Each structure stands twice: as C-alpha cells, then as structure tokens.
Predict the 3D structure of the following.
Amino acid sequence: MQQIAIFASGAGSNAAKIIDYFISAKKQITVSLIVCNNPNAGVLKIAASYNIATLLIDKEPFFKGDAYLPQLQEMNIDFIVLAGFLWKIPEKIITAYTNRMINIHPALLPKYGGKGMYGDKVHTAVLNNKETQSGITIHFVNKHYDEGEIIFQATCPVDKNDTPETLAKKIHALEHKHYSAIIDTILSQ
Ligand code: GAR
C-alpha cells in the first residue's frame, strides 16, 4: 500500500477529487493524511467526512523545528501532494521527499509563479496582462517556489470577458480532471 499525504490550506476541492479517485480506483494507493495549517479550512471538513486523519500544523515547529517529519514517517507517508497549500515547504521535508512530492499551480509556469502568487492573485495577473490562454502546471517540489521539474501542463482559453472568478472555474475544472490521474501515473511507475 502506498500512502499519500495531501497538504492543503483552503477549500479542498482538489483534495476531495483525489480522495474519491483513489477510493474508486481500488488500487494499493490511498490518501491517509490531510496536513493543514488553517483550523477553519474547508479541507478539514472534507477529511472528517471521509474519516481521514488530519494533522493541524503550527508555524514554529514547521519552520524552526522538526517540520513534522517524524509524524509523516510514523504514518509511513510515501508521497506528498500539495493542493492549495500556501506555506513554503521546509528543506527537511524537501530532502526527505525528493521526487516524492508534487504541487499544482493554477497557471502556466514559469509564468505567474513564485511567492505570493496563489489563487485569485494569479488569475488577476493573467487577466491584467491580457493573456489569451492560461492553464495548470503540475511539478515536482524543490527548494525554489514553483520551480521544480514540470511533469504536466494543460491549457484553457482566456476570454475577453473573463473575471478572476470565471477563470478560476476553468482552472479548477482542469485541475479536477488531471491531478489525480497524474498522481496515479507517478505512483504506478
Ligand atoms: C488550486 O487552484 C491550486 O492550484 C491553488 O490553490 C487552489 C486550491 O483550491 N494553488 C496555488 O495557488 C499554489 N500556489 P482547492 O482548495 O479547492 O483545492
């Protein structure tokens, strides 16, 4: 059995899709932990509804302590999926999970990445620059924000009358369509 931990701090729509996918896939792959830094995040309710363990993390131990690595190892976490997790990943975790941690970014990296570029901020920047297309990037995580090796990209058109909200909807649809299958491909190799 390969065990996935999903790190998420928001609504958790991607987390829900991934959990569902691996329940239906009936493979030896399961989401066994949700790691979250926000006690009010929707993803915690999703975890509870599926009876999945959660780890609510604090800044101090995450950035200056053991980065919760002992807990991840105790739970035999093989693979980490970032799905709307907004804190930088400490080097201790990056080293322990080299090539075993991926992120999804709501734009076509290397454009519109880096610190502070998340959620609607990304979509607003794309619209302000009058881009005609945007999309998603799934990439391995290294110590530079949004710069790890790109695994997969998919695009969608940006229309003249798109708003950050309508663009976010298109991007979410792409994320929900592709993220689980990409995780499956990597873990099934
Ligand atoms: C997703 O669109 C994801 O790409 C983005 O946060 C959203 C989380 O949505 N991540 C980033 O912006 C990371 N820089 P969700 O909580 O509904 O899955």
Summary: The pocket of glycinamide ribonucleotide is lined by residues 8, 10-15, 83-84, 104-106, 118-119, 122, 171-172, 175 (CB under 6 Å). The domain at 104-189 is CATH 3.40.50.170 (Rossmann fold).
